[in-house]
Description:
About 35% of the residues lie in helices and about 30% in strands. The chain has 2 domains: about 1-140, 3-Layer(aba) Sandwich (Rossmann fold), CATH 3.40.50; about 140-300 and about 325-340, Dihydrodipicolinate Reductase, domain 2 (2-Layer Sandwich). It has helices at about 10-25, 45-65, 75-80, 95-105, 120-130, 145-155, 190-205, 295-310, 315-335, and strands at about 1-5, 25-35, 70, 85, 105-110, 135, 160-170, 210-220, 225-235, 240-245, 250-260, 260-265, 275-285, 285-290, 335-340. The strands form 2 sheets. A 9-stranded mixed sheet has the order 14-13-12-11-7-10-9-8-15, with helices on one face. Strands 3-2-1-4-5-6 form a 6-stranded parallel sheet, with helices on both faces. Helix 2 links the parallel strand 2 (about 25-35) and strand 3 (about 70). Helix 4 runs parallel beside helix 5. It is globular, with a radius of gyration of 20 Å. The model has no long low-confidence stretch (mean pLDDT about 95). By secondary structure, the chain is of the alpha/beta class.
Amino acid sequence: MMRIGVLGTANIAFRRMIPAILKNDKLEFVGVAVAAPSEWTEPVDDDEAFKAAKLEKAATFTEKFGGKVYEGYEELLKDDSVDAVYIPLPPSLHDKWSRKALSYGKHILVEKPFTLSADTTGEIADIALANDLAFYENYGFVIHPQFTTMKKILQDGRIGDFRLMRAMFSFPFRTADDFRYNKEYGGGALLDCGGYVIRAAEAVLDNELFLQRAVLHDSDTYGVDIYGDATFETADGRTAQLSFGMDNNYKCEIEIFGSTGMISSSRAFTAPDDFKVVLSLVEKGTASSIEIEPFDQFGAILDRFIYLVENKDARAEAKSELVRHASLVDEVMNKAKRVKC
């Protein structure tokens, strides 16, 4: 039984990850950590009120899921009974706390993006490899049966020869205090929803990708990119057109077009555990649908993480996949045309 704790009280941990941990018979949830005063990154007017609010939110976790509240991220990491940590902190904090966790001998499961750059991602993976520890990034949609079904339909030639892939992930504006709109926390659409569509292109095209064009629209108000698009090609000319945004109409789609048909999903990246996905298929002019039964995407991520903990020989390939993805995100970040909005 692997004992796993959570750094921070992120909503994704409460809604998705901890419930998945509790259902896994190889894992035990030990608790959630809130930042100690020396670990705070937010500007604080009233230290006691701020601490009380953090502890109150953490209490909702333990009331629902059990475990204990650790009054400090490092307090959790110092607990020798903890084997692994899930890190759903804002992206700019992933680097520091991943390194800290590894220094205490903990396996790490990190929310996307793993870090803010490919170089840093590679460094952390190397530290983990050198210390016989596992690491993984939470891009669960590529494990979902809807995604593997779409790939198999393409590979089996049911829609003819590949012509084009399009992926779109966007959502309406949330709230101004969301970390996604804060540059210091590693905010921005590319690092958030943009990572999904790039990861999808990697998995569908299954080959080295070359950036052809990219545009990022930067908000003067928030100092981060709030929407954008990118086009990638493979050496043999296959193309993926990608768009993403966090001030847009909601879209969560993948479309793969072939010479004789197409396959698509309208809930490609964030299907809940109880959601039956319906794929749209056209084969030689005949339209049909394929129902994909509800699937625990977060549970599948945990199974993959456990596999990497138990199989050290698989970790080098995990590093290669991780760094390759981070390098593509870096390329868009560094080469995109920047437009003020």
